[in-house]
Every structure is written in C-alpha cells, then in structure tokens.
Write a structure and sequence with these properties.
The complex is a heterodimer of chains A (about 800) and B (about 160). Chain A is α+β, with helices and mostly antiparallel strands and about 800 residues long. Chain A is built from 19 helices and 31 strands. Chain A has three domains: about 10-40 and about 495-640, 2-Layer Sandwich (Aldehyde Oxidoreductase, domain 4), CATH 3.30.365; about 40-150 and about 215-260 and about 265-300, Alpha-Beta Complex (Aldehyde Oxidoreductase, domain 3), CATH 3.90.1170.50; about 305-480 and about 645-795, 2-Layer Sandwich (Aldehyde Oxidoreductase, domain 4), CATH 3.30.365. With about 160 residues, chain B is an alpha+beta fold. Helix content of chain B is about 40%, strand content about 15%. In chain B, helix 3 (about 85-95) packs across helix 4. Chain B is globular, with a radius of gyration of 16 Å. Classes of the chains: A alpha+beta (about 800), B alpha+beta (about 160).
Chain lengths: ~800, ~160
C-alpha cells in the first residue's frame, strides 16, 4: 500500500542543519487546486480577441499539394483567415534538426506547414483561423485541397533499398544517422563462449498519449514586437530561444508561460511545426491564437517513438560469465528529424545502454536510423532505455536458460560489483556509483523470489503457467552539457533558483524547472523549507514563466530533482546565511552564536528564541535605517547548478514481473510487479514510488498493448483512443516499490533522477516473465507488444 | 448552425438559462457557456473519462451527452461537489496518497470514484479497479488511486459500523 512514510532506515547524513522535510512523504500542497478542478490548464485560458486555429493535415503518407481552393471555407461564419505554408514561411525560418556531436547526421529543412509536399499523414498543410473553434472546424469541412499521392518509404527494413523512394532527394538517401561501436575483441569472445544466445527483437512504434493534448496560445504584440506564448511545455526557455531565432524577435521580448500541464512524458519537450505555425498566425493576424490538438490529430502529430528492430547476441562462458554483447539496431523515424533534440538520440541511447549493468569487456554495436513517411519520432519517456534493457535482459535470460542457471543468479554473477565504481562500461559510458548487487539482494527478499519460484513450480503441475521476469536497469539522469549543449542545441543543462524572504517571513522560490505532475514543485518546497529553516506552509513555489524564473533547461532526462533540487538547496542555504547576517546585525551578536529553527532565529547553544522571521522582514525591508552603517540586507538570493563531473549521472534498479499466461487464449495476466530502485537520496519516497509506478505502467503499455499500426499505404489504422489501447486500471497489477539510496557525490543533495527507470525496465521484465511462463512449451515472444495473437502463434495454436 | 435553443439547467445548484446550439456537448456547454473549467476534454469520443460529470444524479461522459439533453435537469461538476461529503473525503485521500500527478484526469476520476463509494460501498480492491477502468490516467499507474479510494471505503465502513 502507498502509505506515506519516511526513509529513516538508510541513515543518510542530513543535508541541512534542521532537516524536517527532505526524505519524508510530504503531500504535494500545490495539488489541492487540481483535485478541486481549479487548476489552470492551457485550454482553460481565454484572452480578449483570441482566435482559434485548426489544421488541414495531410490525409496520406506522402502527397504533392497541387492547390487549395479556400473560397467556400473563407465565406463561413467567423472565419478570420486561411493560410498556406508559403504564407508562414515568409516570417518563420526553416530548421534542420541535427546535432553536431552525432557525426554525419542529416535531415532536411522543415517549415511550420508543408509547402508543396506533405511527408507524413498528419503533417499540417493549411491553417484555418476563426473566432471560435467550432467555426474553424466548420470551415475546415469546406476546404478543398487538391493533392496527389506520391510513393512513400514506409518500412524501415527496405528504407535504404534502391527501389525505395528517397524522401528528400537532396540528402541522397533515407539514412539519417549511423553509428558503429567496437571494443575490438568481440569475435574472439564469441569464439570462446560456451553458449551464444541470439535473438531478434521488435519494438512497436507507440506514442505518449498525454491526457491533455498538445496546446498553446500565441499572443503577438506588434507595438512592442513582443510575443507571449502560453504553452503546455516542459522546456519554456528552450522554446523562448527557438521562437527568437526562427522569427527574429529579441529573446527578451519573448515570454513563455507554462501553467498547469496535463502530462508530458517527453511529448511536450519538442518544438512542433504546429507550435511555429500558431505563433506565425498570431504575428500575421496581430491577435492571440489558440491551438489545441484534438485526440485524433494527436495520434498523427504528437511524436511517436520506439520503432526498432534489434538483432542481438550474447556470449557466455560455461560458468555463466557474460563475455560479450553484439547488437544491430535498425530504427525508423519520420520524414524529418524532430526539432531541436533530433530523432537520432533514441538509437544512440540504445547503443550506449545495451549491456550497461554488466561487467563484460567486449561489445559491438551497429545502428542505422532511417527516414520514413510516418509521424516523426523523438524522445519519449525512457528514450532508448526500454529497448536496450529488453534486449540485454532478454539475451541474459535466454543464455541463463541454455545454461540452466536461475535468472537471478546469472545477474548476481555478472553485474558490475558495488565496490567497483567509478566504472567505465563496455560501451564507454562512465558510471559514477551504482548498487546492482544490493538491489538484487533486496529484490530477492522483497519479493520473496525463491518462494515465488516454488509457487510457480507447484502451479505448473496443475497446468497453470506462471512466469517470473527480471530486468536490471540503468537510467541516464542529471545530464551535463554533453547531452545537447555540445552538439550545438541551445538547451540549458544548468538550472537556477531564486529564494526570497518575504516581509512577513514567508519564503518565495522561483525555479527554472517546472511542473507537469511529477511533483517538482512539491520537492522544491521541501528542500527550500529545510534549507532556509521554515515550515513548508511558509514556502511558495513559482515555476513556468520565462519572465520570472532564472534561466534553465526545464524537465527532461530525469533532471528536475537532481539539478533543479540542488539549485534550490544552494539558494536556500545562501538565503539562510544572509538571514543570519541580518540577525547578527540586528542583535549585535556574532553570527556563529545564532542558528535558525522553523522561522525563528535562535541561540545556537540554548535554542532560545531571539528573532522571528517577520521581525527580520520588517526591519530588513522597512527599517533599514536602524541597521549598522554600510550593512545592506540581501534577502533575495539566486544560485545555479550544473552537473559537470560526468556526462550523465546514471541510476540503477531492478524490476520483477510475475505473470500468468493462458496458453489457450494467449492472454497475459499481470499478477504483481516489484521495483527496487536507487535514485540516490530520495527527497520524497511517496513521490518516487509514484514516479516508478506510473513509469512502469507506461512500460507495460508498450510491452502489452500499445502500437501505432500502419497499413501498407502509410495510413495509421488505430489513431483513436478507442482503437489504440492504453493501460487501464483493471488490467494493471499492484506495484511494490523499495529503495536503495546511493547518493551522487556530484551535488550536496545527492539526488539522482527517478522519472524514467520504471519505463526502462518494465518491458524487459514483462517479456522475460511471459517467456518464462512459455518455457515449458519451448515457445517465446520477442516482438512488442506481446498480444494474445503473437503468443498463440508462438505456441503454434494459430 | 446558427439556430439556437434555449435551455434551463441547474448547474451545481444554480439555475441557469442559456441559448446554445443544439449540437453543443454538455462538457463544452459547461466549459464555454458556464465557465466551469474543472471538467476536462481528453479525447472527445467517450473513452478517457476526463469529462465525467453527474447529470440528474448519474455519472455521464460530458462529451457524449448533448447540453440539450440536460434541459430541465441538474448537472453537478467537481467544482460544485468539492469540499463536502464523499468528494471531500476522496479529495483528501487523493492528496494524501498522491493519487494524482498532472491532475488532468482527476476531476473525472473523482466523479467515477464517488460513484463507487456511493453505489458500491463494500467494493474490494479489484472491484475498485474495474469501476475506475472507465477513466484513463497516464501518470499514476492507478495503484495510488486505488489505494486512495479503498482508504475512503474503509474509513466510511468503519464509521457505519
């Protein structure tokens, strides 16, 4: 059960003098407005003279646009204007989404709306703007667009064949990016192996399905040549920079505001063509324009992810020692690399992460990222991790089965030992400090693994086929500039916090990392309360406004707690010092004789109350005449933090899935799921548990249900919430979460990220559990999602 | 499209007269004509449950019911039911268990949860899971939502006993 609790068992040293909130399951006080229906999501905002845009989107995968007859639509009530891509291209520069550190990567220039050619079903082609959404949709029905279908590249396996149309002839071929990695001794390792397990894994294309669709309001002010964009977005400063560059508006004249955001998961961290189109329309019309994607267009215009085919191989010695991994990853993206983070990162991550938990020395990887006439793909929660983890863990389990070793035991034998850090893995990634051994030991006890194995064996005699699936996980968090900055993308790896003592003794904190439900604002309040020394009720958190907060990267790559949290901690500690300096001046006592307890300056030895914060505020702000000459109170402090010691701070964990497979129907019943995770110092165990659970269920979605299914002409066949299956409560298991805490030494707080490990590990655990259940039939499945049909086929029943 | 119909609906206890297009869905009426933004649009085709409201005491999908069907009836939304009775208990439990993350599904989820508490007060954990399978949540994985609802059921059962 998800009972609020504290993590006292670990005995980590406190990071603040009087720690009351860090490490505790403090509820999120800011969530109260959301349970009362009083949040402010983007579509709740209405501005004077606000117009609404809807888009005519390409109905086919690849089309030549011959012409647009908008006369009938233009005459419809409320219609303000109808625009083509050429209209917007006059004021918005095209972009090419590549990164300098992904050598050889290429993509084609992309515009807010298609010019003469649409390259995927769903690409915006014509914008209809009207006074109301209903009027815009009515007019859209009368828009007459003439187009003809062009041959399309739709299958990644044939994307590079000479017969396949090249989507952008100027690029020469459909290859976006390729990468090879080879440690040199792979062939030798395989020749010495006692067993070699091989498998081909398929990962279905799926998408994020945030419940609140993508949406924004662009509000251009021609008098100031300034732009305000209300946006459901994860990275407001990134968007500020992009709007500035694409539209030639000074950075300081652009304000991006993110109020309540209804889920993000990476879907809302990209710059979509619709975003630039909406801004362009506001500039052209000199009035606010609102765009809210409906669910049907979300399916064809939100980024997709994970369409991969990976051939994998593992070499293992007779004693069960992993000697080498080899993978060949082919992944199909859209017709353009997505701006500005690019669509090559996911495949690149697969290369970096495969085999990551283990201490083998030899590794070879080959990656090809190919363009397709399908919805663009990009970073979605987990980014490559679920793929790398599933192939690694699937191969480990297959080798263990061939050797007759228990899956838990082979992992215990091969994980990088807890005392071996810092460690450079075979792929070259630098691991600061992980705890695989401790996590595996803990999982064994936590889930009572051996008892489950006995139960499984007993039930098998009764014709009940249950399976246990383990996955050992590493997760990339707290990125340095190595992720995007070094590649030329202007996405900050640093973040900042401003902490202010308010006159009545409250503390206001402005942070450059925002909130989309993860609980960032909640943990910032905990950290600030402890750092300054006040009750959490006295802390007010403000995020999501580029005019107000310090500059920063925002929410991605599980960085909110580790990067944003450290900035809040440092700013809070600095304010505490300044408060004590003011108290010292007011009391004429040495600063060393003073400390702070819950909003009161007290005697450091006796803890006798000396000065309450409201009195400090009164004197500091309104009676500075009473202070010593030359002393100025500094009751607002800003601090920034960036992680520079490692490219990334990796975390680790282990998951266990327990399933029952019905061999007659192919149905998989999820009985239970366990996770032991180590995200360093846990700031709020309840919130970390919930990050794990939500992420695990997203991983389960991809493993069992979710797939964007295309027909042979490139039409998305299941682009509605009725047809695209997402996990619902009835099918989901209870998920038990336990923690190991190995703080990073790169910050005082010691927190690493926790947002994506669940999604990283769940598909591999589910796959291994299903295949464990199917083992008596000598059957296995490796193509996600594992539908009943695929399982029955594997069993030879259909 | 410009033909309007006059309807009278009691929304959260307040009697309202409005002129609307007959094609207007109940949730659009609530959000746009009445200004109650607590009921959300997630799919607009009856699957996600984010627009769940109460119409004449029954929970309905605000995107599948037309506003004209509410003519002469009463509608209750999360804003009206908050801070009292079953919904208040559920709201506190949702906060305590962190049974919401982004909160976009929460108003609809609370309406579905209140329906379970009121009509199936002895529901067990699996029955709660079944009952809220009408409502999609992408953030939580449901576990904490089920915990929160079960805690309210247990608390109310104890109070009755």
């Amino acid at each position: 059960m998800n009972k609020p609790r504290e993590l006292t068992e670990f005995g980590l040293p406190a990071v603040t003098e009087d720690q009351r909130y860090i490490g505790m399951s403090e509820p999120r006080h800011g969530a109260r407005r959301l349970v009362q229906g009083l949040g402010t999501y983007l579509d709740d905002i209405e501005l004077p003279r606000m117009a609404h845009v809807v888009f005519w989107r390409s109905p086919v995968a690849h089309a030549k646009i011959l012409g647009v007859d908008a006369e009938a639509a233009r005459k419809m009530p409320g219609v303000i204007g109808i625009f083509r891509g050429q209209d917007l291209a006059k004021i918005c520069k095209p972009w090419v989404a590549v990164l300098g550190h992904l050598a050889g990567m290429k993509s084609a220039p992309q515009h807010p709306m298609a010019l003469d050619r649409a390259c995927w079903q769903g690409e915006p082609v014509v914008a209809v703007v009207a006074e109301t959404r209903v009027q815009a949709e009515d007019a859209l029905q009368l828009l007459d667009v003439q187009w003809e279908s062009l041959p399309a590249a739709l299958e990644m396996e044939t994307a590079l064949d000479p017969k396949t149309p090249v989507i952008h002839p100027e690029l020469g071929d459909n290859l976006c990016f390729t990468r090879q990695l080879d440690t040199g001794g792979v062939d030798e390792a395989f020749s010495q192996a006692h067993v070699v397990a091989e498998e081909t894994f398929y990962f279905g294309r799926h998408t994020g399905v945030t419940l609140e669709p993508r949406c924004q309001i662009a509000d251009y002010n021609p008098a100031e040549h300034s732009l305000t964009v209300y946006h459901a977005q994860q990275a407001p400063h990134m968007m500020q920079d992009l709007y500035s560059r694409q539209f030639d508006i000074p950075e300081s004249s652009i304000r991006v505001i993110c109020k309540d955001v209804g889920g993000s998961f990476g879907i809302k961290v990209h710059a979509y063509p619709d975003d630039f189109a909406t801004v362009a329309l506001s500039i052209l019309l000199c009035r606010p324009v609102k765009f809210v994607a409906d669910r049907l267009e979300s399916f064809v215009s939100d980024i997709h992810a994970r369409e991969h085919r990976v051939k994998g191989k593992i070499a293992v010695s007779q004693s069960g020692e992993i000697l080498a991994f080899e993978i060949d990853d082919l992944t199909g993206i859209g017709p353009y690399s997505m701006f500005p983070r690019t669509s090559a990162i996911e495949g690149n991550q697969v290369v970096n992460i495969t085999g990551g938990p283990y201490k083998h020395k030899q590794y070879r990887a080959n990656l090809k990222v190919v363009f397709l006439n399908k919805t663009p793909t990009c970073q979605y929660r987990g980014v490559g991790h679920p793929i790398a983890c599933a192939i690694t863990e699937g191969l480990v389990d297959k080798a263990a089965r061939m050797l007759g070793i228990d899956p838990l035991d082979i992992r215990k034998k091969n994980v990088i030992p807890d005392d071996a850090y810092p460690y450079t893995a075979a792929s070259g990634i630098k691991l600061e400090i992980l705890s695989h051994e401790e996590c595996l030991r803990k999982m064994e006890r936590f889930a009572d693994y051996r008892a489950l194995r006995e139960e499984q064996a007993q039930l098998r005699k009764q014709g009940i086929y249950r399976g246990l699936g383990l996955s050992t996980v590493i997760e990339l968090t707290n990125p340095s500039a190595a992720f995007y900055g070094v590649g030329g993308a202007r996405i900050a790896s640093q973040d900042g916090a401003t902490v202010r003592l308010d006159p009545k003794g409250g503390v206001t904190v402005l942070v450059s990392v925002g909130e989309q439900g993860q609980g960032a604002e909640g943990i910032y309040a905990q950290i600030a309360a402890d750092a300054v020394g006040v009750s959490i009720a006295q802390v007010k958190i403000i995020t999501g406004d580029t005019n107000v907060t310090p500059y920063g990267g925002g929410t991605w790559a599980s960085r909110g707690a580790g990067i944003g949290g450290e900035a809040v901690l440092q700013a809070g500690l600095a304010l505490r010092e300044n408060i004590l300096k003011l108290a010292s001046a007011m009391l004429s006592r040495p600063i060393t004789s003073l400390t702070i307890r819950e909003g009161v300056v007290v005697d450091a030895e006796t803890e006798a109350a000396l000065l309450e914060f409201p009195e400090l505020g009164r004197v500091g702000y309104f009676r500075s005449d009473t202070l010593p000459a030359g002393f100025t109170p500094e009751l607002t402090v800003t601090r920034h933090y960036v992680q520079r010691d490692y490219p990334f701070i990796w975390t680790n964990g282990v998951q266990l899935s327990y399933v029952e497979v019905d061999p007659d129907t192919g149905m998989v019943k999820l009985l239970k799921h366990w996770a032991v995770e180590d995200c360093g110092r846990v700031i709020n165990p309840m919130l970390v548990d919930e990050q794990m659970r939500g992420a695990i269920v997203q991983g389960i979605g991809g493993a069992l249900y979710e797939e964007c299914l295309y027909d042979e002409s490139g039409q998305l066949r299941n682009g509605s919430l009725a047809d695209y299956l997402v996990p619902m409560a009835n099918e989901m298991p209870d998920i038990e979460v336990s923690h190991v805490q190995t703080p990073t030494k790169t910050s005082l707080l010691g927190a690493k990220g926790a947002g994506e490990a669940g999604t990283a590990g769940a598909p591999g655990a589910i796959m291994n559990a299903i295949n464990d259940a199917l083992a008596p039939f000598n059957a296995s499945v490796t193509a996600q999602p594992f539908t009943p049909e695929k399982i029955l086929k594997a069993l030879g029943r259909i | 499209m410009t033909i309007k119909k006059s309807i009278q609906v009691t929304v959260n206890g307040e009697r309202l007269n409005r002129e609307i297009e007959p094609r207007t869905h109940l949730v659009d009426f609530l959000r746009e004509s009445v200004g109650l933004k607590g009921s959300h649009l997630g799919c607009e085709h009856g699957v996600c449950g984010a627009c769940t409201v109460r119409l004449n005491g029954q929970i309905v999908r605000g995107c599948l019911v037309l506003a004209v069907q509410a003519d002469g009836g009463s509608v209750d939304t999360v804003e009206g039911l908050s801070r009292q009775g079953v919904l208040a208990d559920l709201q506190e439990a949702f906060l305590k268990h962190n049974a919401l993350q982004c909160g976009f599904c929460t108003p609809g989820m609370l309406m579905a949860a209140a329906d379970v508490v009121q009509h199936n007060p002895r529901a067990n954990r699996q029955q709660v899971r079944e009952a809220i399978s009408s409502n999609y949540c992408r953030c939580t994985g449901y576990h904490a939502i089920v915990d929160a609802i079960c805690s309210v059921l247990a608390k109310r059962a104890q109070e009755v006993a």
